[in-house]
Design goal:
Layout (H helix, E strand, L loop, with lengths): L1 H17 L26 E3 L1 H14 L10 E3 L14 E7 L4 E7 L3 E7 L3 E5 L2 E5 L4 E4 L5 E5 L5 E7 L1 H6 L5 E3 L13 H6 L20 E2 L1 H11 L10 E4 L14 E7 L8 E3 L3 E14 L2 E6 L3 E4 L5 E15 L1 H7 L4 E3 L1
Antiparallel strand pairs: 1-18, 2-3, 3-10, 4-9, 4-11, 5-8, 5-10, 6-7, 6-9, 8-12, 13-14, 14-19, 15-20, 16-17, 16-18, 16-19
Bound molecules: fe (ii) ion.
Fe (ii) ion binds next to β4.
């Protein structure tokens, strides 16, 4: 015991000297460096559409669409974190009104959009023009110029997800506004989709493009057709019918840092529990169900979001035929060797 006390005194004394040289030794009252299991500060959260909908209406009425960077967005803020929806990525609900332009810029954060409501807005990513429709997944790869123009007649709402917290942790932030409100548009719209969208075939001499994934958009109709086909497979014991979006060039995830899935949970399905490192956020497109996450129970319905914290046991139950979109940070964890999963 004396040894510990003496050692503690010696360590404190040493520390006073070491600090001058920007060095440090472990102190006996330091929190443990390693824990047996992850102890996330991020919390699992449920956001209900009945709370979000009036907030979005108010946002549309009261907040201007700022030029040169800011967008009109409602951020899903995790109560366990200073910033962000999870500790790696941010989810925001963006509202764009008819005639509005979200001006052109580029940044080192990777971004995706999932269209929640409405039609008629066009996005341009590095010159490629794409008409966004409800249920589409549209990517904005890190470093790509992007702007959005709403040519429809009703407000449009989509989910924006950016790997901002991971980018900031890695201290790799760049941002650049474009010289004009919008960028020039290629003559051929949806070029990447026309070339690589089937996932089965591609022009043999299609230019590879600057990004690891040659595909920028995953239209709703194709995703739904794939999910309908997968419904004929034996159900996944944890997730019922689930498909991960893929990079057609590699078979891997569409982005290096974030994965996306589309999941159907049929009425009466009772999934087994699982837990894993990494975080994820679900968006409920339709239907109703219950998810148990850690000690909490989320009774979710269309329009709701919920986040699952790292290493939290969770399981899903279907009450009405349900469709969910999911974003996770699994690709980043797998690339770094930190992904771990336990299945019940
Ligand atoms: Fe952006």
């Amino acid at each position: 015991m004396d040894i510990v006390t003496n050692d503690g005194d010696a360590r404190r004394a040493l520390q006073a000297e070491l600090a001058r040289f920007h060095c440090r030794v472990h102190q006996s009252d330091d929190p443990p460096l390693f824990t047996r299991e992850p102890r996330p500060t991020m919390r699992s959260v449920h956001w209900r559409w009945r709370d979000l909908a009036p907030l979005l209406d108010r946002l549309g009425r009261e907040v201007d669409l700022g030029a040169g960077g800011p967008r009109r967005t409602l951020r899903l803020q995790n109560p366990g974190l200073a910033e962000g929806t999870t500790h790696t990525f941010w989810c925001s609900i963006q509202v764009i009104l008819p005639g509005e332009v979200a001006t052109c810029h580029r940044h080192s954060a990777s971004a995706l959009r999932f269209i929640m409501k409405g039609n008629g807005a066009w996005t341009t990513v590095d010159g490629e023009h794409y008409a966004m429709n409800e249920g589409d997944l549209v990517l904005t790869p890190a470093g790509s110029w992007h702007d959005h123009v709403h040519r429809g007649s009703e407000p449009m709402v989509w989910l924006d997800v950016l790997d901002i917290s991971l980018m900031r942790l890695l201290q790799a932030t760049f941002f650049e506004p474009y010289a004009h409100d919008v960028q020039p548009v290629d003559r051929v719209p949806d070029r990447s989709w026309r070339q690589h969208g089937s996932g089965l075939m591609a022009p043999p001499r299609a230019a590879p493009g600057p990004y690891a994934n040659p595909l920028l958009a995953y239209p709703q109709a194709s995703a739904q057709a794939a999910l309908d086909a997968a419904a004929g497979l034996p159900p996944d014991p944890h997730d019922d019918v689930v498909l991960a979006y893929r990079n057609p060039a590699t078979g891997g995830p569409p982005m290096t840092t974030m994965g996306q899935q589309l999941q159907r949970i049929r009425a009466g399905f009772q999934g087994r529990r699982r837990r894993h490192t990494g975080s994820k956020v679900y968006y409920v497109l339709r239907g109703r169900g219950v998810s148990t996450v850690g000690d909490e129970r989320y009774d979710w319905e269309a329009g709701d979001f919920f986040a699952v914290a790292p290493w939290a046991w969770h399981a899903h139950q279907g009450l009405e035929d349900a469709l969910l979109f999911q974003v996770n940070d699994q690709p980043a964890l797998q690339a770094l060797g930190y992904y771990r999963e336990e299945l019940e």
